[in-house]
Design brief:
five-stranded mixed barrel, about 90 residues, mainly beta, OB fold (Dihydrolipoamide Acetyltransferase, E2P), homopentamer, 1 helix, globular
Amino acid sequence: MIIGTVVGSVVSTRKNENLVGNKFLIIEPLKSMRASESNIVAVDNVGAGIGEVVLVALGSAARIGCGKEEQPVDAAIVGIVDNGTELE
Amino acid sequence: MIIGTVVGSVVSTRKNENLVGNKFLIIEPLKSMRASESNIVAVDNVGAGIGEVVLVALGSAARIGCGKEEQPVDAAIVGIVDNGTELE
Amino acid sequence: MIIGTVVGSVVSTRKNENLVGNKFLIIEPLKSMRASESNIVAVDNVGAGIGEVVLVALGSAARIGCGKEEQPVDAAIVGIVDNGTELE
Amino acid sequence: MIIGTVVGSVVSTRKNENLVGNKFLIIEPLKSMRASESNIVAVDNVGAGIGEVVLVALGSAARIGCGKEEQPVDAAIVGIVDNGTELE
Amino acid sequence: MIIGTVVGSVVSTRKNENLVGNKFLIIEPLKSMRASESNIVAVDNVGAGIGEVVLVALGSAARIGCGKEEQPVDAAIVGIVDNGTELE
C-alpha cells in the first residue's frame, strides 16, 4: 500500500455501469513514496475527503474485502492515516 | 486508475481471437499522473473518441465487470471524465 | 497493453516444464510507451517475427484467453500492429 | 519480492473493517532494489520491528498463504532477512 | 518476463511457513531490461546458481505452474537462458 493526500476528485457521468455510486478521488503519494508525477485515482471506501492523508491499496487488492469484486477498479482508499504529518 | 487523453488508435488485423471486436485506443496519461513517456493501449468500454479525457483501469481490473473476463487485456477505458480540463 | 518491436529471441533449454513449446521474444517498447531501458520478454501467440510491431498484454492478462492458464508467463504478444509506423 | 528496512509504522483508526488487527509498517527498499523515493506500506506477518531488514511480497502474493485472502492488502512482510548487512 | 543475472542469495530463518524450502536468489536485470537500481528477489524453480543468466516471471505468474499456488511469492526463476551473452 502507499500513503498519499487526497488532492481532488473526478467527475464522470458516462462510465461503466458497475462503477455507479463510487466516489473517485485523486491521490498524491507522499514524497517518500512516489516517483515524480505519479498521482493516481482511487475509489473511496472509508469516507475520505480533500486534504486527508489516506492509505491506498493497489491492484487486485482494491477489489478484495470492499464489496467491489465485480467493479473495474485498481486502487482503493482503505484507511485514514492518523499520523500522516509525521510521515511526510 | 489513471486519467489520460485519447491520442490515437491501434489497428491490428492479425490478433488473438478473443480480442476480436475491441477498439484499441492509445492513452497519454495526464502530466500529473505519468512518468515520462508512458503511453499505454487500452480497450474502450464507454464509446470514447480521440481527444477525450478518460478514466482507465489497469491490470486485472480491466477484465472485471466489463464482460472481458476471457480476453487478454490489461487496460480498459471505464469512464469519460467530465472535469478533465481542471485536472490537467 | 503496450506496443513494441520484436528485437530478439531467448533460448532456454532448461526451463519450467509448463513453458515447453513457447517462443520467447524480446520486445522493445515504442519510445512513447517506455521508461528508458525497459525491454521485456513475451511469449508469442500470433506468429510474430523479428522486426514486427506487436501488441503486448502484461500481467495476468498474458495467461487469459491464450490457453496458457497454467503457465508461468506474465507477458504475451496478442496482436500484430498494422499501423505501427505511424505510431512511432 | 524485494528487501527493505522497516523505517516506521502507520496508525489508522478509521479503516476497512477487514484490515482490523494488522500492523502496518513502512518499508524503505534497499538502494539496489529501488527507484528513488519508493517507500511502501506492508502488513506484517512475521513479527518484524523498526530497523529490521525484511523480505516483502508484493501484489496478490501478499494475500496468499498468509490468511489474508479477504483483506485489501498489496504488500506483506513474509520473512526476516538474516544476511541483510551484506546485501546493502 | 525479464532476463537477469543471479548475483546473490537471501537467508531468512524466520519466515512465512509456506515459504519453507524455497531458495531465494537476487536477480540483477540485464541493462536493457531495467530501470536503474531495480534488483529483485526471486524463488528458484530450475536449479539456478550464482552468475547464471535466467528468465524470471513476475507477479501472479510466479505462482502458476510451479506448485507454489499457496505461497506468498511474486517472482520466480522459470528458465536458464542459453544465449544470455548475446543478449547483454
